[in-house]
Structures are given as C-alpha cells and as structure tokens.
Design brief:
- With 185 residues, the protein is an alpha/beta fold.
- It has one domain: Pyruvate-ferredoxin oxidoreductase, PFOR, domain III (Pyruvate-ferredoxin Oxidoreductase, domain 3, 3-Layer(aba) Sandwich).
- Helices cover 31% and strands 23% of the residues.
- It is built from 5 helices and 7 strands; from the N terminus they run E-H-E-E-E-E-E-H-H-H-H-E.
- It has a 7-stranded mixed β-sheet with strand order 2-3-1-4-5-6-7.
- Helix 1 packs across helix 4, helix 2 packs across helix 3 and helix 2 crosses helix 5.
- The protein is globular, with a radius of gyration of 15 Å.
- It starts with a strand and ends with a strand.
Length: 185
C-alpha cells in the first residue's frame, strides 16, 4: 500500500463492539504512520442485537472523502449470523478480503470473488477470559492477520490503552490468540 486508501467496512450487532473495534484499529493505524484515518458508524435504531455498520478508511495521505464506504477493500463480520440478514459483500472490490468470526471453516465461504479469513473468535475470546459474545478485540487479531499493514504489537498496545482498567490483558490476549488461529487464503 503506497498512497492508496484502504476501505474497511465492519458489520456487527449492537453491543458487540464493532464501533470500538474500528476505533482501536484506526488509532493503531494512525500511530503506525497512516495520517489519513476516517471512521463513521451507521446504524438504524440503537438497540442491542440490531445490525451495525462502520466505515473505516486508512491512508498514507489525507482523506477528503468522508462518505460511507460503498466499495470496500475489506469487510469484517463480527457475527456470522449477520450473513443471513445483510449482504455484507455488496459492492466489495474483486479480490478483497472478507474476515469472518465463525466456527465454520474457511471452506464454508468458498465461491466468492474475495479472499476469506476465518476464526472462531467467540470461542477464542472465551478462552482468553472474556465473557461470551465479547468479540471486538478478537476480531482485530483476525483482521491483523488478513490485512498485515501494521504490526500486531501496535494493535495490542491500542487495545490495552482502550481497555485500561477494564480487562486489558484479556482483551489483548483475545486478539493475540485469534491472530494465531486465523485461517487465510
């Protein structure tokens, strides 16, 4: 990635922390030398369990386009049940990356025009000591493996800062474990 912008669209459910995950990734990108960072959440009624979408643009140069992402390079899915409700790959660029929290293997998502990365983030986050359903920090590890544009250490630092005093070590461990167990194409 030289001067191009990487557009990442996050799909989750209210309460899963998609907005927080995008914010952490954005902060780590900024601290890793990407001065162009724009994040914009988009959701309907604010309620736990409702679909949530977040647009995150990262660039080595200033970003002037503040519009929601229409043609993402990367789509991150915090809950694979959303795939039955939302066409998460809509508008996705050919050859893009689809990162999914799922207990199913990568083969279950073959046939798309995109590269696929999967991990059972829900299970791994529990193993790291987080409550069931806390997947936002774990999915950051999966994204870091699928899109290696910055060191995992920067992401872990950003997670520890965000969750200081609130299970920072367990959240960082969820990302670290998920990174190690993410299957990519």
């Amino acid at each position: 990635m030289q001067n191009e912008t990487v557009e990442i669209r996050w799909h989750g459910r209210g309460g899963q922390g998609a907005i927080t995950a995008a914010k952490i990734f954005a902060q780590a990108a900024f601290e890793s030398g990407f001065p162009g960072v724009v994040m914009a959440p988009s959701f309907g009624t604010e309620r736990r369990g409702a679909p949530v979408e977040v647009s995150l643009k990262i660039s080595k140069t200033k970003i002037n386009d503040l519009c929601p992402i229409q043609h993402p390079d990367v789509v991150v899915v915090l809950d694979d049940s959303i795939l039955r409700e939302v066409n998460v790959t809509a508008g996705m660029k050919p050859g893009g990356i689809l990162v999914i929290n799922t207990p199913k293997g990568r083969a279950a998502y073959d046939g798309n025009h995109v590269r696929v990365a999967t991990a059972d983030v829900t299970h791994l986050a529990e193993q790291a000591g987080l409550k069931r359903g806390i997947v936002n920090t774990g999915i950051i590890g999966a994204l870091a493996k699928a899109l290696p544009i910055m060191p995992l250490s920067k992401l872990l630092e950003a997670i520890e800062v965000e969750f200081k005093g609130k299970r920072a070590a367990a959240n960082a461990e969820a990302a670290r474990m998920t990174y190690a167990h993410t299957t990519t194409e």
